[in-house]
Amino acid sequence: ELSIEQRFVPESCPRAVRPGDFVRYHYLGAFPDGTRFDSSYDRGSTFNVFVGKGQLIAGMDEALVGMCVNERRYVRIPPRLAYGTEGVSGVIPPNAVLHFDVLLIDLWNSEDQVQVQTYFRPEKCPRTVQVSDFVRYHYNGTFLDGTLFDSSHNRMRTYDTYVGIGWLIAGMDQGLLGMCVGEKRIITIPPFLAYGEEGDGKDIPGQASLVFDVALLDLHNPKDGIAIEDQQVPESCERRSQTGDFVRYHYNGTLLDGTLFDSSYSRNRTYDTYVGKGYVIAGMDEGLLGVCTGEKRRIIIPPHLGYGEEGRGKIPGSAVLVFDIHVVDFHNPSDSVSITVNYKPSNCTVLSKKGDYLKYHYNASLLDGTLLDSTHSLGKTYNIVLGFGQVVVGMDMGLQDMCVGERRTVVIPPHLGYGEDGVEGEVPGSAVLVFDIELLELVSGLPEGYMFVWNGEVSPNLFEEIDQDHNGEVLLEEFSEYIQAQVDSGKGKLAPGFDFEKIVKNMFTNQDRDGNGKVTAEEFKLKDQEAKEEHDEL
């Protein structure tokens, strides 16, 4: 009788041989005395055949039924179920009992379809693979018995391809459809949907079922534009970015599977760029339009609007990019100072002008509200002479025409503030500045071009009064003492906010026309006299 001994049965047996199935198996054929008469191992290829269709001796047809892939059976076949009384000339004698040591490698049926087993699917799946999509995935390729024939992991590079347009074997084209990014599935493909009877000529033999363990990393379609998700827009959004604006933003850049490739936070510095001018990839140029200061958004960029087929640095070719951005501020190079008056006293007749000495309090911040500096925390006012470059240009502009007690908010673009360089450790480069200002004191300045004026009539013997030792020469010390006396007595007034010694030295130097450190009567002239002489000369 036919004798079957199961020498090894795998723990998992999802499918067993049935009549009509196609099998691939290895065997050793021997007589009862151990003499070997045949071996598939010696030929270096499996024996491939349909079961139950008369292509095998009857005993083998029967013995293979019920086998699992990777199962090993020891089969004893009597002559009547083998080669009978005839035998096989020169190989099998008549009435020979045959022993076969059989190992099943592969099993499929002509009615099989692609089998998909998903063993991980992310909770969030906004999009699945469709025909004509371009995908990037990792895989391990094995035969049904678990033998590895290929792996993208070993090459440390994804397999990148279009789906459904014939770039892949038919079974893989089918097996990838409906996958989510991050999903992992096992795709089992019968040979007639893979490499068929011939195999691939290298690693895959003919009539081999293939098993692919696939992890989908990326997915896009050539028709895709950018996608914007997870917007968090501030309640107050007075202005949105436009082409030509300069934007400062933080970002985390990841691939679709969440792999981080870059982050401005790790550098502790915003990324600063013009929008719509080609300074960044096309997708980011588009994604930064219409943002508000303080807004957060996710920008998903397909590779044809990112770094294309070649990729860049840590970004692989044909990769979809995901940027989670936070807009810190933006401005336009054509922007001027913006002034918003928050409070103005009813009595507001004296307005600040160039040359006035101002004392004021301020809070300085960035557009996103980050506090930079405050005079309140220092417990003292900030004091300047308006229009003399003692503050940034934008602040000189923002303090004009202000009255004591007035409060205003002054927004200063970087080209009127601290520019591209900023102030190291204090003000970031290209930052828009916001000053909340309260003017506390105003001392009117002198007419433009004057550092000292008389409050009354000028003495006709002015030089003699200054020349205290009456030697016909005035030294800096004499000149300084005289000016100080006029200021103390109220007869003269110095430009407020400047250092007394510097003003006096500057006035003296203007009079000392030959530069010898002494002023003579011939050199000494008042400002109105100088202007008249110059006019006469002209």
From TrEMBL:
Keywords: Calcium, Endoplasmic reticulum, Glycoprotein, Isomerase, Metal-binding, Repeat, Rotamase, Signal. It is found in: Endoplasmic reticulum. Gene3D superfamilies: 3.10.50.40, EF-hand. GO terms for cellular component: endoplasmic reticulum. Residues 511-538 are annotated as: Disordered. GO terms for molecular function: calcium ion binding; peptidyl-prolyl cis-trans isomerase activity. It catalyses: [protein]-peptidylproline (omega=180) = [protein]-peptidylproline (omega=0). The keyword Cell division does not apply. Residues 454-489, 499-534 form the EF-hand domain. Its EC number is 5.2.1.8. Residues 20-108, 132-220, 244-331, 355-443 form the PPIase FKBP-type domain. PANTHER family: PEPTIDYL-PROLYL CIS-TRANS ISOMERASE FKBP9, PEPTIDYLPROLYL ISOMERASE. PPIases accelerate the folding of proteins during protein synthesis. This is peptidylprolyl isomerase.
